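Why does residue order matter? Because the sequence determines the fold. Keep that principle in mind as you read this record.
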Amino acid sequence: MRRAAAVVVGGALAIGLLVAVVLVFTARDESPVQTITGPGEAFRDQCAAHERTDPSTYETDPPTNGPHLPRVPAREQLSGDDELLHALELGDVVIVYPQRTPPAALRRLQDELAGPFDRDLAAAGQAVILSRDPSVEQVTGLAWRHRLRAATPGDPRLREFADFWLGKGYAEARGENCPPAG
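Structure:
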């Protein structure tokens, strides 16, 4: 009889310990969305609704996130905010520059991290896209919700930025108030 009582008490203790462990670990899970922090300035997420929007509603220029029409970049020179934002949503890193042609340091960075522009690579969110934007005053790295303004085209922070954010689009870097990608 003592042996049966010991088994019952031991089982109850094991179940109690298991319940305690589960409660401790689930109490630590504050949110189903983990916000990733990395290099560059972070901006509030305007989500990635696939709808036309007024460009004046974007918080940054060029925009780092927000509603847009889903247009995979067809060529390296992006044709507007829809292509830019869709590239960022997919996980591509876009580096904009004001010069007529991309500086050699940016081409080297692109070649080392992803190779020359390829539409399929861009559609997979694995491209480093170099795009001229005469409205920017300096070379600027863009990722979903993040921006890095570089001192020079050879600024080592650009490599860190592109390497960290490449492949981390909307699904990984979205804000807590945005629905899952899909």
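The mean pLDDT is 85.
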